[in-house]
Known about the structure:
By secondary structure, the chain is of the alpha/beta class. The protein is about 35% helix and about 20% strand. The protein has nine helices and eight strands. Strands 1-2-4-3-5-6-7-8 form an eight-stranded mixed sheet, with helices on both faces. Helix 6 (about 160-170) links the parallel strand 5 (about 145-155) and strand 6. Helix 3 crosses helix 9 and helix 4 (about 125-135) packs across helix 6. The model is unreliable at about 195-200 (pLDDT under 50).
Amino acid sequence: METPxxxxxxxxxxxxxPLEPARAAPRMREALRNATPxxxxxxxxxxxxxxxxxxxxxxxxAARLYRPNGADAPGPCTFFMHGGGYVIGDLxxxxxxxxxxxxxxxxRVLAVDYRLAPEHLWPAGVEDCLAAFDWLAxxxxxxxxALPDRLAVAGDSAGGGLAAILAQSRRTQxxxxxxxxxLLQLVDRRKAKPKFIExxxxxxxxxxxxxxxYLSDPDQASDLTVSPLLNNDLAGLPPAHIIAAELxxxxxxxxxxxxxxxxxxxxxxxxxxxxxxxxxFNLTAVLPGARKIVDETAIILGDGLRG
Length: 307
């Protein structure tokens, strides 16, 4: 007989489950927004930061355009999706990261605020990202100042998974993909991991809670727009840079995707943040060495955008 988790034990005795998604999500979102200014160093100045709204799957969604100094003429653009387990995160929590990516890549970044769970279950967020990307690659290119044939996708954690999904779905329209410690599968969440990588901002328990909030049925985890690592059709995908964290339960998934892309003939570069946990791209004021890795990764992104 399995031992119940502590939320299950609480509800058994009529007490509210503090991790019930509808109850927990608003508190977690507020906590992350409040913490963000203290976790990231001040980003570089840009020529322009502009809020706009773009087409989502079922209406307009918020987006933010970052234009670096010197990028006056139409040029390459990165389509960025924030992390947060499909439940938390927004334009504000990843604003400093996007500013840094734009400044050091020398190219525009368009970040999108896709719909989040548990209010909007899968595939709402995926469909928003696809719709917004299609707008950027089509009629939105002029408004953003983007060259439709020089578009990259990028994201961290869950956003990295979304970037991988977009690269698979729109492979002929994307010239580069940047996957930052990407969440690439939600099927195998309980495999044995070294204890030292559990609990550093992400754990097997957290992944279980993501499934609970994001999917209406756990069996949906095997869908390729939830777990792009399972896709066997990888030939012809755009070149990729995968950046990992050594102290991260997702380390194996990033390595496995690197190996599968390489076997399919996709050019891949790969780097690991040594002794760093999941989420360190947003922790440049806290973790020594994180800022240097972010800046170096942005340069790689710029090189990928320009071919």
